[in-house]
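I have been asked to look over a protein record a colleague put together. The record follows directly below this note.
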Amino acid sequence: MTIRKQRLNPRKQPVQIRSRATVDAILIAAAQVFEAHGYAAGTTNRIASKAGVSIGTLYQYFPSKEAIAVALLEQHISETGHRLHEWVGHMVVEQHGLGEALHDYVTEMMHIHSRQPRLQHMLLEEIPLPERVHQALLESERNAAKTMAGLLRLFPEVRQGVPEHTCFVIVQTVESLTHRFAVHPDDQFIPRTTFVDEIVAMLVAYLTYEALPQNAS
């Protein structure tokens, strides 16, 4: 394993309850430090102090702040996938209409990105990704598209045979737009509620339009 890979991977995995609690405290503290101070100023000393552990204890689990950031990104990937599956289950039970279902989805993604927008931008744009995390991110995107495709089959107004690549476009569009809005809220010239409504209207139109025959004028 190269030195670079060693710096991006956890030093050891927590097994005991106390060890897991220590790692959780470090990750929570790191998220708060990165959000408040940014990545460059988010030093391991600051993280350890915020977590209430010694710097030596931090280094028992993470060899660098890069490794901590990677762990936070893995946590974000897992949480986003979990939230998507929860949303699908809720939509199936509640039997919401297409517009309402999509509104709930966009609102939930906005909520995820708005909680710690500076951290979200850092995780997705600034940190170097080990290959395993890059592959995990790609796999999560594919799984999200499959999950979305399965749900949309329940809505008769959606054009027939919606393929997974259509749902991939939907997932990527919502991810990109909500991320951009949450990270730069002061740059936006429309209210948040209007922004969500506009995305939903766009998605409904995209999913329900009837494509013209290729030879149509």
